[in-house]
Design a protein that fits this description.
Structural class: alpha/beta
CATH architecture: 3-Layer(aba) Sandwich
Number of helices: 11
Strand order of the largest sheet: 3-2-1-4-5-6-11
Distance between the termini: 34 Å
CATH topology: Rossmann fold
CATH superfamily: NAD(P)-binding Rossmann-like Domain
CATH class: Alpha Beta
Number of strands: 14
Order of helices and strands: EHEHEHEHHEHEEHEEEHEEHEEHH
Bound molecules: nicotinamide-adenine-dinucleotide, uridine-5'-diphosphate
Largest sheet: 7 strands, parallel
Number of domains: 1
């Protein structure tokens, strides 16, 4: 069975992907600095698997380390060799992701996301590991009014965070071109990940106040925030509020597995692929669906538009379907149910 390094594996998407890979029998190595996460997420991942009578303790190796420090990454590759499971491929989630923080602290974002990735790629080269699935983002695109976004559409980020993602895609592209017959690369552009594993044992646990809409809705539902402030009611959409493509985090995890398997079995290539659902949901619709599915009120009020915001960001997912034979299985109702189940069972996230 293949040995996979997951950077940022204790975070929101990383922990759900780690669960899926362990379930499928992969050996999983994790490097995480815990700058935005808790190692308790992995304890819960093990609990979910043990509840299913799957013992995977000998398949999971966790190392605290920072991608900004090359020797930390080296240590993970060394430890994989020591246990005779040298790393075959990397799923690279580790990164900082707050759009607003990236505007206030751009150097922190460039250093963490871009320097961290360059360090990772150098160490991968050193150990002749040349397969990588990278977490990119829909924030690289220039928005189109009401058209689905395709991978070859114009990219024009509006904040440093988006630029770090686009820059990393560029670096990966250059790297691929430098050794076309070596590297296997997939940059996956996620739309709006949300929801949680159905068990309610793992989910999204942002440090501090979340910026994103979905975790704010669950925080209002649990009573930690008073209301949702809707950023703008005049966006020129069907109800005037912003439209996004919310994708269940387990669908996203499956997307990573499909991309990984595709890369491992096909010839070297460099792919850029949208992972979304192709369906748009407005802010008001999301609030209403959450209220209906969970029988709970979500108070809201209208506020002014957020700087740099977009009206409509929804994926065209035909390339993912074609190339990876992947498509999302969960609905927006599932996202609302599972995300609330996690929040309700863990009002304080992983601090419980
Ligand atoms: P997250 O913050 O929950 O997880 C990121 C993980 O990376 C955390 O565990 C954090 O501690 C770790 N990390 C950050 N910098 C590190 C470093 N230098 N060294 C080691 N570990 C480090 O975020 P997430 O939602 O799981 O997102 C995962 C990836 O997907 C990120 O790269 C993010 O930019 C990207 N992404 C997320 C979204 C989203 O809305 N969640 C959307 C598009 C893209
Ligand atoms: N949004 C909002 N109030 C909030 C946070 C977000 O109205 O407190 C809106 C935002 O304007 C956008 C949608 O919710 O239309 C999704 O925003 P989010 O930040 O979650 O994702 P992104 O804009 O990065 O896709």
């Amino acid at each position: 069975m293949k040995n996979i390094l997951i950077t940022g594996g204790t975070g929101f998407i990383g922990s759900h992907t780690c669960l899926l890979l362990l379930e499928k029998g992969y050996n999983v190595f994790i490097i995480d600095s815990y700058i935005n996460s808790s190692e308790n997420s992995l304890k819960k991942v093990l609990e979910i698997l043990e509840n299913k009578k799957q013992s995977v303790r000998k398949k999971l190796y966790v190392i605290e380390g920072d991608l900004k420090i090359k020797s930390d990454i080296d240590k993970v590759f060394q430890s994989s060799i020591k246990v005779n499971k040298s790393i075959d491929a990397v799923i690279h989630f580790a990164g900082l992701k707050s759009l607003s923080e990236s505007i206030n602290e751009p150097l922190k974002y460039w250093e963490n996301n871009v320097v961290g990735t360059i360090n990772l790629l150098k160490i991968m080269e050193k150990y002749n590991c040349k397969t990588i699935v990278f977490s990119s983002s829909a924030s690289v695109y220039k928005a189109k009014s009401d058209k689905l976004l395709k991978e070859d559409d114009i990219c024009e980020p509006v904040n440093p965070y988006g630029y770090t993602k686009l820059t990393i895609e560029r670096i990966l592209c250059d790297l691929y071109k430098s050794y076309p017959s070596h590297w296997r690369i997939a940059s996956l552009r996620y739309f709006n990940p949300a929801g949680a594993h159905y068990s309610g044992l793992i989910g999204e646990d942002p440090f501090g106040n979340p910026n994103n809409l979905y975790p704010q809705i669950t925080k209002v539902a649990i009573g930690k925030l008073n209301e949702i402030k809707i950023f703008g009611s005049d966006w020129g959409t069907k109800d005037g509020t912003g439209i996004r493509d919310y994708i269940h985090v387990m669908d996203l995890a499956e997307g990573h597995l499909s991309a990984l398997n595709h890369l491992l079995k096909e010839k070297p290539q460099n792919l850029t692929i949208n992972l979304g659902t192709g369906k748009g949901t407005s802010v008001l619709e999301l609030i209403k669906i959450f209220e209906k599915v969970n029988s709970i009120d979500i108070p809201f009020s209208f506020d002014k538009r957020r700087q740099g915001d977009k009206a409509f960001v929804v994926a065209d997912i035909s390339f993912a379907k074609l190339k990876l034979n992947w498509e999302p299985k969960f609905s927006i109702e599932d996202i609302c149910r599972d995300g609330w189940n996690w929040q309700l069972n863990n009002p304080n996230g992983y601090l419980n």
